[in-house]
Amino acid sequence: MATGIKDKVAILGMGCSRFGERWESGAEELMVEAFNEAIGDAGVDVSEIDAAWFSTHYEEINVGKGGLPLSIALRLPNIAVTRVENFCASGSEAFRGAVYAVASGACDIALALGVEKLKDTGYGGLPGGLGGTLTPQWSANGSAPGNFAQLASAYRAKHGVERDDLKRAIAHISVKSHANGAKNPKAHLRREITEEDALNAPMIAEPLGLYDCCGVSDGAAAAIVTTPEIAKSLDKERIVSVKALQLSLSNGSESGHNSWDGSYFHTTRIAAKKAYQEAGISKPREQVSLFECHDCFSITEMVTMEDLQLSPEGGAIKDVMDGFYDADGQIPCQIDGGLKCFGHPIGASGIRMLYEMYLQLQGRAEERQVPDPSIGMTHNLGGSPMSNVAAVCIVGAQG
Amino acid sequence: MVGITAFGGYIPKRRLVRQAIVDAHVWADPGLARRGRGERAMCNWDEDAVTMAVEAARSCVNSGGTTPEALYFASTSAPFADRQNAGIVSTALSLPESIASVDLGSSQKAGVSAFIQALGAVQGGLYEQALVVASEKRRVKAGSPGELAYGDGAAALAIGADGLLAEFVAAQSATVDFVDHFRSATEAYDYTWEERWIRDEGLAKIVPPCINQALAKAGAAPADIDHFIMPSTIGRAVAGIARQVGLPAEAIADNLAGVMGEAGAAHPLVMLLHVLETRAKPGDLLLLAGFGQGCDAVVLRATEALAQFKSAQGVSDALANRQPEDNYQKFLAFNDLIRLEKGMRAENDDYKTALSVTYRKRDMLLGLVGGRCTKCGALQFPRTEVCVNPQCRAHGTQEPHSFRDEPASVLTWSADYLAYTADPPSHYGMITFKEGGRFMTDFTDVTVGGIDVGTPVRMVFRIKSVDSRRGFVRYFWKATPAGGA
Questions:
Q1: How confident is the model at residue B107, as a pLDDT?
Q2: Is CB count within 10 Å lower at the N or C end of chain B?
Q3: CA–CA separation, B483 vs B126, rounded Å?
Q4: Quick check: B191 pLDDT over 70?
């Protein structure tokens, strides 16, 4: 009988580069920037790292395949480096690899580092990939905003929501993230916006306007993990440990079987349920202090609030408009600006979310600090509503 | 006795308003001012001679009773010069691989020629049934007479011996190397000589003797002809031929110039379908003629069965499913007549197509064939090794099942201004089939606001994307509002 990951692995140190259009930096510089902060925070030497997990998504415009780019950029001492890729959830996947390595006892100290250098494509938005030799010959001619925008059509139909009411709610989501991002010196987008700005922005994919879409950013984030015992032996205080780490992948039923209505994330619901069970959380709306969700688009964040059981089904719009998820609300969401404003360097994002939860739980989030958080959660999603990878991670004070 | 046993037609939904063409070019040619009447049928960016042929042939086959052993495809605008275009049509309709397939082209009479060849093959006993489909999307330069006069369209005829709608009575051909226009193998556009010369030295001298010989073979007098079906974009040319031969003036069939323009090699058959659908009565004699480096003439007699026949989609139905387009820029853009900035995202289409994959998955990609689980009955697309039904997941249980004609409706959608398409915004979404199965698909022939959750859709065969670097056209199926909404 599996006993789960709860309290078996502690975060020893974390680092995150400044996100944004880092024209002056390549992936190498970004990796080093995040790693130097993490290793300094951990207070160990690079020679003490037993193994590393490395996440990137777009190998074509980024660093290429394999674990070598990380090993070479950091001049790691010939340790094992495993490259992982799981769409936009790649960062969570790297973290999972490092955490499981420590939990297994195979490693004392492990590194997870994610990076994405996106701004070398020559155009805005994410680059389109072919997805193999068969997929491009039949799959719809889409983009990320168009895929996620479809949630809105199904959500409106299911819950009888008028387009204007939905537009206002998702505008509020973006206004909130911009307000939070403005307080984050590492964030990509640091300008506050108004609801009118969001509502009147150019249309990208009906009903998502420009401000409903997250930033496309360069960046890297790193986590160094170890056992709680080693963390304590290094005189670490306010140790943050992993409470749950769950991943759920689509198996084609949403996209191929008529049992899904298109208005929610089937996988997020499964991953969240398992994560709460693993962490021993029975009333998430009351127990979760704050969270980072995968707000690639405002509509994604809105339906995810329900999928994470934080808002009742059909109740996210009311919670959003009531300010439940605002910085001063009951469960602050995207307190660091989220993908929306901190930015979304794909391979780094899952680790960036954990970085903010880690800072918050240690009381080091400065202007953004939420009073006395005990449980932080990250939700990192890759793919599209019809076919995706959902990762949910819960962290909290060791013990 | 052999003849026509079923038919189906297709005309693209978009009709370019001629006045829009005139408005764009009248500054250079004041004579155009009076030529702005009516509309010309205009392919959407994702249509070509093959996709239109599939739609016409599909309507013909779906009208019942057709199991062709041979497929004749006629066009002077076939997308592939060396790849059997008829084979694409055949696979798209899941016709058996034992079928014979023939492409004909190189002349504006190719449609009628294909018809005669098919009639002859069935009459001679080579095949019991054959399918003829003629389709045309003629390329024209901006500002050329053809831009106003031509239109896109397709017609399909099933040939057999039983259940005849029209009997084949006689045929006569003539071959004369009269070059009224030409397009060499390496050129994109036609080069055309003077109309008056074409009318007086070509049409007036080549067609009448051929028609007279056909009538003689049929044992019919010119006055017996109830419908004279012959296209020409040259004013009064057909009326002149009728007068020369002695055909009744009222027998001259509507050339549909006002509503669609002339669809090249397909047009005689498009007009034939229109006559069969709207005017021909049992017992009527029909004279069909095609012109181009000679002439092909066919005499047919309508039967009693014609009155009862209803095509799944005829030319008249297709003409009625109409969306006027007054934006001439779209015509220029769709037909590569203007050097447009398409953006870097358009470069994503220029990838090498894995032909081995295209072949392995040919029933899926061309025929929209998915699977039906023989254990739980779940329909699914694509067909896979393991059943998609979460309650089943059986291995190796799926038999082929085509979703071509399954009714479906929209589950989710968006109109995307970011993804590249020649006709923004890119409409796509998840559709669910009424009997089971779903997938995310492109929508086509949709205007902004024309799609919503629950909108009924039907599947149509279209260009998926074009690898412009290697000149490869990729085809797949898309959803379009059912009933031409």
A1: 97
A2: N
A3: 38
A4: yes
Domain boundary assignment for chain A: 10-117+218-233, 144-204+239-397
CA-to-CA distance for B404 and B370, rounded, in angstroms? Answer: 10
Q: What digits encode the pLDDT tens for the residues A62-104?
A: 888 999 999 999 999 999 999 999 999 999 999 999 999 999 9
Question: Which 8-state DSSP code applies to residue B422?
Answer: S
- The CATH homologous superfamily for domain A144-204+239-397 is Thiolase/Chalcone synthase (3.40.47.10)
pLDDT on residue B348: 87
B427/chain A closest Cα distance in angstroms? 8
CB within 8 Å: A153 and B474? no
A159 touches chain B (CB under 8 A): no
pLDDT band of residue B485 (cuts 50, 70, 90) is: very low
Q: Edge-to-edge strand order for the sheet containing B285-291?
A: B100-104, B70-74, B130-136, B153-160, B3-10, B166-175, B294-302, B285-291, B227-229
Beta bridge partners of A86: A88
**Nearest CB partner across the interface for B388, out of A130, A204, A253:** A253
Write down the pLDDT at residue B484.
55
**Residue B403's Cα: distance from chain center in Å?**
21
Q: Is A10-117+218-233 assigned to CATH 3.40.47.10?
A: yes
Torsion of CA A41, A47, A49, A51, to 10 degrees: 150
Active centre residues of A (catalytic): 88, 344
Pairing of strands B323-325, B369-373: unpaired
- SS3 state of residue A116: strand
Q: Cβ distance B439 to B368 under 8 Å?
A: no
Q: Which residue bears the tokens 């590492």?
A: A186
* B343 to A203: CB separation less than 8 angstroms, yes or no: no
pLDDT over 50 at A321, yes or no: yes
Find, in chain B, the residue whose alpha carbon is nearest to that of A262.
B412
**Domains of chain B by range and CATH?**
3-334 (3.40.47.10), 348-368+403-484 (2.40.50)
- For residue B417, the chain A residue with the least C-alpha distance is A204
